[in-house]
Amino acid sequence: MTNPQRRKRTGLTWALIGGAVLIAAIVALVVNVIVGAATGPSPRPTPSPSLPPGSTAPPTETPGSIEVVDPDVAEAGWLPEPITTDPEMYARAALAAASTFDTTLSTREEWLDYLDTWFTPDTRYTDPSDQAARMKAARLELRQGVVLPQEMWDSIAQQDGRVIAAVTGDVRLADVPQDAAGDMRIATANAELTFTQSDGAGGEASYPETVRVSVQVLCGEASVPTPGTAQQAGHCKVVRYFTEPVEG
Q: What's the pTM value of the predicted model, to 2 decimals?
């Protein structure tokens, strides 16, 4: 890549690569000047006695009191997964989580294993084996086409680098084709990634970059919560991250 500032990067991978390369250039300039996630289903909530047999009460949440699955993951430089039934709120967090990490606090594989815990099966597939295969493919897509590759992680790690992402502006929510239940949404938004690395002279250099990204989320009773947590079936989970923004 000879001129990353002039190339349009639409996926997270290209955004991360472009940001890392530009920060490396900043580092070189400073040096020269200064003399350089078992996703098996857990039990469903017990039906309320006032509900019809076989139905389950949807999770409820009070505005301003949103919980997270595990707040301690922030100590590893990751973004905690929210416990919510709000697809927009969840999508904002999911999109940011796929680009938030600290190479001084965790490895790339540890980070990806954590992101695996956000996933739930695609309910458009009814056969359990098909669901498992599709979720495996979605996790592989995340590793190979969405987040930065291992060599780029290593390059950023050499400069004690970290990235913090946040969704800015509106989130566009679209229906998912062939979703009979209507519980899934494809969320597309702008995410601002702030790359921070050592400048080689005892300080740090930062560089923000905005990219367009998409994620498919499920916020319905068929979602599979993370075992051993306060999540319940019905809380939002990730179905798939996309390598390119979905605008159609």
A: 0.76
